[in-house]
Amino acid sequence: MKPLLRKLGILWGVLAIVVGSLAMWGGGVASAAPAVKYPICHRTASDNHPYVYIEVAASSIDGDTSNDNGQGDHLAEHTGPVYPAVGPDGKWGDIIPPVQGVTPGSANWTEGGQAVFENGCQIPGEELWSTTVSTVVFNAATDEAVTGAEVAGASVYDTSSVGDDQEGYVPTGTISYRFWSNNDCGVEEDSSGTDAGTVDLGTKSSTQGPLAAGSYSFKATYGGDKNFAGSTSGCEPFAVLKAASPSPSPSASPSPSPSPSASPSPSPSPSASPSPSPSPSASATPTPSPTETGGVLAEVSTVPNASTDRPTGGSNPALPIGMVLLIGLAASAFLIYRSRIQR
Predict the structure, then answer these.
(1) pLDDT tens by residue, 63-79
(2) What is the value of pTM for the model shown?
(3) Architecture (CATH level 2) of domain 132-241
């Protein structure tokens, strides 16, 4: 029996852990869910536009002013009849439909109030606040506004702004961009252009490019909301030019060649009749006779060497006189020695 009870205790412990984990997981998912918003017609101070459509949290329409985080409770504080009637304070009240489990009741949920609510919080026959749309084209690479023209190969995108704010209320909704490969937004060609994106207000268009040389244009259209009328911007054209050919790098400037100047006159001036250079004698060169010097024949030429102005012997340069004398003395000594030996 005791082992059985022990096993049951363990089983119950495991189940408790599983159930607790699921509860914690489920609670976490619920807390992460986005807060629900509820639509109402909020009063303004304008007779031209008495109501605006807004969406608020449950704490702003539950009649409890202590939990609205300073935003005010529309059900408890924005009292008064449906416009154009006013209450003792000179104001009309919000139109708030009943929400089960949220509001303790409703505000101005009469036939007239429901008609205004179902008309987008607009009084029948009332015109929405007007708007204007302006655009600026930017270079996608530099994020700088396009002024004048871009260079071929550039990519661009369009931006927009919607005005005018009315009594603290601003336009909401989406903006749609169109792109044309001409400068008049397709008027002449009767073309609808290329879709460049439908995005929330304040968001840029899709990027177009790289673009070839030519003419292009953008236009943006605001779709409007329950309080503001839609509108379309004017056409914004811009041009893309061909890339300029690269200029050749300048080479080093050559030094100017000096202008030929007159040759200076030689100093001293040459005479009119130059002195003739001595011409070699036309007579035949005499053949030198060998001279005996102490028993040794030495052939000495009397023809001067052109470079040394010394006599040459045959094809060899002449021996210096001192050398000739030494050779002669040596030869004489040899002959004398020889004669003595022979005796």
Answers:
(1) 888 876 777 799 989 99
(2) 0.54
(3) Sandwich (2.60)
